[in-house]
Amino acid sequence: MTLDHPVLSSLLPVVLLIFIGFIAGKAKLIRGEAVRDLSNLVFLVLTQALLFRTMSTVHIEQLDFRSVALYYVVAGALFIALLLIQGLNSRSAVLALAAIFSNTLMIGVPLIGLAYGEAGLVQLFTLISMHALVLLTLATVVLELLVAQENARSGKAAPRHMLATVGQAVKNAIIHPVPLPIIAGLLYAQTGWGLHPVVERPLKLLGDAFGPVALVLVGVTLAQAAIGAQLKGALGISLIKTVLHPVLMGAAGWLFGLRGMPLAVMVVAASLPVGANVFLFSQRYRKAEDLVTASVAVSTALALVSVSLVMAVLPKLPG
Questions:
Q1: What's the burial of 308, exposed, middle or buried (CB within 10 Å: 0-12/13-18/19+)?
Q2: N or C: which end of the chain has fewer CB within 10 A?
Q3: Largest CA distance in the chain
Q4: Cβ–Cβ under 8 Å, residues 242 and 299
Q5: Per-residue pLDDT, 269
């Protein structure tokens, strides 16, 4: 496999950015106490710009949701199954999110573009346009519910009626740093006004900074984490993400009649490593931070093999 192979050319820059952050962390160029502030910068500033700008160009009537809807059904079912297996708590919810949330932007876009061209990108952009809204909102609602229950049990908050807890969770899920700019951008897109260059360019600059800064931040945190102690758990999450997830997606897609490009793009998307947004979620809720950080790194390394296998097997499936 040469360095210009689509898998390697997409994954190696991600590995390199994480490695740069790792070296910066080991060299103490970024102190441990600064990681939380950098995480807030990424989560509350860069992510907002990226999500709003992306969603501000989406026109719902132009999107084909059939294969994308099936992707979310598979991911949602896997999320719920893992949550039930691991236990109903906020830590399990973060780990279950890690097992279903793909790095569709940083790795998926260049990979699909090189492998399948413009037709593949249209299919992937349909998925990306709703990826964070569906999966992160699902995770946020579940997390807010579980955190509310945990706080009530520990005495940090008075217990509330279940309907009140659900209502607060939904409110927190909507008025939240991830879903809110997605919803706002989607609503703005329907006006057809477009973004003036004076607004669009700064948003683009901020959004473009998201991927590199988030991955360097993963590397910095990786340098401060005891990876050896997390390796077994990270390997388990990574195998679910890069092996089980695409197998389930491929089986469901085949069963429901997906073929050709739609099936290929959805299965490749499912085989991608853990997305950086999960790391930011773990930072925000302060749950399983070391394990999620290790899972991002391990799954990215595993994806060099798993994505290659997926892309090699898919063309051989009968039409």
A1: middle
A2: C
A3: 59
A4: yes
A5: 95
- Burial pattern 309-319, b for ≥16 Cβ within 10 A else e, equals ebbeebeeeee
Handedness of CA 210, 211, 216, 221 (dihedral sign): positive
Which pLDDT score, from 0 to 100, does residue 61 have? 72
Could you write out the three-class secondary structure of 189-227? Answer: HCCCCCCCHHHHHHHHHHHHHHHHHHHHHHHHHHHHCCH
Which domains does the chain show, CATH number per domain? 6-316 (1.20.1530.20)
DSSP-derived 3-state class of residue 169: helix
Instruction: Classify the C-alpha dihedral 27-224-99-244 as positive or negative.
Output: positive
Q: How far apart are the first and last CA of the chain?
A: 27
Proportion of the chain above pLDDT 70, given as a percent: 89
For 10, the token pair is 């997409």
What's the pLDDT band for 291 if we cut at 50, 70, 90?
Answer: very high
| 223-255 residue pLDDT tens | 887 778 899 999 999 999 999 999 999 999 999
Determine contact, residues 71/108, Cβ cutoff 8 Å.
no
Q: What pLDDT is stored for residue 211 in this prediction?
A: 83
Q: CA 136, CA 133: separation in Å to the nearest integer?
A: 6
pLDDT tens sequence across 77-107: 999 999 999 999 999 999 999 999 998 877 8
Locate tokens 């490749």: which residue?
A: 268
